[in-house]
Amino acid sequence: MDCFACNRIEQIRAKTNPHFIAELSESYAVLSDEQPYEGWCILLLKDHHEQLAQLPLQRQSRLWDDVARVAGAITRELKPVRINYENLGNQLHHIHWHVIPRYANDPQPTQPVWIRPNEERRVILNAQDEAKLVARLRRALEIG
Question: Which pLDDT score is estimated for 144?
Fold first, then answer.
C-alpha cells in the first residue's frame, strides 16, 4: 500500500521530516506543507486506518485530545480569531485532522479554506521560518 501519510510517518520516525512538531498520544502533529494560514497543522494518526468511526471510542477520544491540545497551542502562541477543525478523507485515505487557524485579515472568513484558489493556498515557508514556527508550537505544547 502506498499511503502519503504513512510515508510521512516513516520520515518522522527517521527524523527527516522538517514539518514535524510533536508526537502526541495517538498522532503526530506536523505543519501543513503550505502555510496560507500561519500555524496550519495536520495530525496524522500513528497507524493506518481509514475510517474514524472504526477506531475504538477510547482511541477516538485520545485523538480528539491531541487535536484540542494542538489547537490550544496554536491559540496561545499565534492568537487567531478562530480555529477550524477538519477530518477529511476524500483524497488522503488515512485518518488525519486539519487544525486551521483563521485570522482577522482572512479574505474569506466565513468560507472553508478549500474554496480559495490553489495558487493562493500555496504559501511555502523557507526552512528558517518553518523551523522557527515549529519551535514556537513545540514551546506552546511544552515539548522540547
Answer: 52
Distance CA 20, CA 16 (A): 9
Query: Which residues does 80 contact at the CB level (< 8 Å), separation at least 6?
Result: 37, 39, 74, 101, 102, 103
pTM value is 0.94
Give the fold, CATH level 3, of 4-139.
Answer: HIT family, subunit A (3.30.428)
Per-domain residue ranges for the chain?
4-139
Q: What is the C-alpha end-to-end distance of the chain, expressed in Å? A: 33
Report pLDDT digits (tens) over 18-35.
999 999 999 999 999 999
**Residue-wise DSSP of 26-61:** SEEEEE-S--SSTT-EEEEESS--S-GGGS-HHHHH
